[in-house]
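Morning!

This is the sequence you dropped in the shared folder:
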Amino acid sequence: MKTKKVDRRILRTRQMLKDALISLITEKEFTAISITDIINRSDLNRSTFYAHFRDKDDLLSCIIDELIEGLVKSMQVPCTIDQTKLNEYCRPTHATIQLFTYVEDNADYFKTMLNNQRVPQLSQRISDTLYKFYKKEIENKPEYEDQLIINKGFFACYLTSVVVGFVYHWLVVTDMKYSTDFIAKELTKIFTMKPYIPYFFPIAN
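The structure's back. Tokens below.
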């Protein structure tokens, strides 16, 4: 069965509406944004907006759904980066590199929606999705699951927290000062170097 192609004009119109909302979110609270604001910013009319979305919440949900879907897919596609160019000592996985590459390609959207408390749904949705992804990965690989000495749910939570923290710090705190390769390597070090954290260990008598 052939997959029906979406008209490019439809895709372009929907993208204009999404871009308009993201632009407005950088300026004011989501609750303060009106449909009129969105159509004025996108230079489209009201009937065009309602031909694609029920309301602004539907538009926001669409943006979040697409970002989340793209994030997961980015970790499931073959890597196109030459792995031989990466540091042999700490080589990130394909999934890690692809994840940060996807975030970089959609940096304006991620940065806007993670940089403030105006759209808290995105951060929580990312956490929930990554948690399910990592937990499923562990469960699908019994040979790795058997090696775990901690509860797999807690381990998946740990992986999720680290990745979300790295994405936020890279985008918002450093303003993407570092390359995707560098960030991927730094993340990999967390899982391979086992850094000593004093307050996690008993104080010697």
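Headline: The domain at 60-195 is CATH 1.10.357 (Tetracycline Repressor; domain 2).

More detail when I'm at my desk.
O.
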